[in-house]
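Researcher: Next entry in the queue.
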Amino acid sequence: MDAKVSELLTSLQSSGFRDIAGSRASARIPFSRSLVNSLVAQALRGTSSPVREVDVRPHTGDEFDVVLTLSWPLVPPLKVTVSVAQQPEFPASPVLVFRWSLLGAVGTLASRVIASLDRLPAGIRLDGDRLLVDIPVVAGRGPAETLLPLVKKLELHTIDERLVLDLELAIPESPL
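Model: Structure for this entry, 176 residues:
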């Protein structure tokens, strides 16, 4: 990031955003399939996860397929169908809930195997056929953490070949 922009953001953050108090912003940010997969690959680098590769394939209607390639011998790539089951509500319940499915008993077995691995990152929890993402915990590991108190709405949607993030931020009239 340009040094001047970075300096401005640091200054605004350190002042509790008082110089732009009362601001509101909303954005609709579509992420291409290739960008999403690049970000996932980057997140997987350096982990001890048995997941070697992930291919996220968004479809229209808040659904996507995820093809997982594992490092286990003789295990073919697994195709998991995922849908958004519940959007987060800020600040009361900032948890994004997905429902996933994999063919019948294979899905139940996969859920047990994944849960037993205990290798999901902090803030991500598997509960049967639901995957819960605690956004503050996940964002707490990166630069987005400073924006969390400003989030009024954050929703994840899908259209063909894209994940779409709908975001609303508001800076209170009085500083944070």
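Model: Strands lie at 24-32, 51-59, 63-70, 78-86, 95-101, 124-127, 130-134, 151-159, 162-170.
Researcher: Noted, moving on.
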